[in-house]
Design goal:
Elements lengths: L1 E5 L6 H12 L3 E3 H14 L7 H6 L16 H10 L3 H15 L5 E5 L2 H5 L5 E6 L2 H14 L6 H17 L12 E4 L5 H23 L1
Parallel strand pairs: 1-3, 1-4, 2-3, 4-5
Helix pairs in contact: 1-9, 2-4, 4-8, 7-8
Bound molecules: adenosine-5'-triphosphate (ATP) and the ligand Nc1ccn([C@@H]2O[C@H](COP(=O)(O)O)[C@@H](O)[C@H]2O)c(=O)n1.
Ligand L45E5XJ5 binds next to helix 2, helix 4 and helix 8.
Length: 213
């Protein structure tokens, strides 16, 4: 079973994807981390994320970079959202993600284009959303835990800028797949959101079983 989880920044998609992977014993891939590694490589080489050439060079990163806590910073998140708009970058990273999705037994992947591009064949597609303000509050709390103190206005502006770039780009923009189930986590605790996600997966499995009989 392939479970595709998409949604905007800080919507809770990673939290839900990890919980689903644990619940169903499936491997999980955070595809945002891959784009973050490309963004980080470009910044480290003092390149320009807006340059397709620099961004493409960043695609040959060493996998150890995926473990670097710096990848979680807003600086790298912003660079990731700029490099990810380049068609050649998306092409360079496509096969790795498709292979992960297609492994025997299935997988859970989260990102922006899993249900639309990486695994359109996924049995379950979730589109996780929350209001920009709630996402900014979550992100601010997360940052504070990591010792970063930014105003809510700044965090909200960053979230809105990221949404704008991710939804407006020409190549694989963030959008729900036509057959995705939307899960609004704005007023749900993590536990309640995960419970609803498991319910959506179970409903999809039951429907698939009924159709195969
Ligand atoms: N339902 C929820 N209620 C409260 N906090 C939540 C909820 N879901 C997630 N969070 C918290 O919000 C923050 C962002 O969640 P998460 O990392 O899952 O989002 P994301 O969509 O994967 O973000 P990104 O796109 O940056 O990877 C985390 O600190 C997480 O613990
Ligand atoms: N499938 C994906 C995943 C991510 N991106 C881009 O990377 C940025 C960082 O992703 P996070 O999930 O770690 O926040 C994100 O803003 C996207 O621009 C993508 O394009 N496709």
């Amino acid at each position: 079973m392939i479970i595709a989880v998409d949604g905007p920044a800080a919507s809770g998609k990673g939290t839900i994807a990890r919980a689903l992977a644990r619940h169903y014993g499936l491997p999980h891939l955070d595809t945002g981390l891959i784009y973050r590694a490309v963004g980080a490589s470009v910044l480290r080489e003092e390149g320009d994320p807006a340059s397709e050439g620099d961004a493409l060079a960043g695609c040959s990163f060493d996998d150890f970079l995926l473990e670097d806590p710096w990848l979680k910073s807003e600086e790298v998140g912003k660079a990731a959202s700029i490099v990810s708009a380049h068609p050649l970058v998306r092409k360079a990273l496509l096969l790795r993600q498709k292979k992960f999705a297609a492994q025997p037994g299935g997988a859970v992947l989260d990102g922006r284009d899993i249900g639309t591009v990486i695994a359109p064949e996924a049995e379950v597609k979730l589109y996780v959303k929350a209001t920009p303000m709630i996402r900014a509050q979550r992100r601010q709390l997360e940052q504070r835990k990591g010792g970063v103190f930014e105003s809510l206005d700044k965090v909200l502006a960053d979230i809105r800028a990221r949404d704008e770039r991710d939804t407006k780009r020409a190549e694989a923009p963030l959008r729900p797949a036509d057959d995705a189930v939307t899960l609004d986590t704005s007023f749900l605790s993590i536990e309640a959101a995960v419970q609803k996600a498991v319910g959506i997966v179970e409903a999809a499995k039951a429907k698939a079983t009924a159709e195969s009989e």
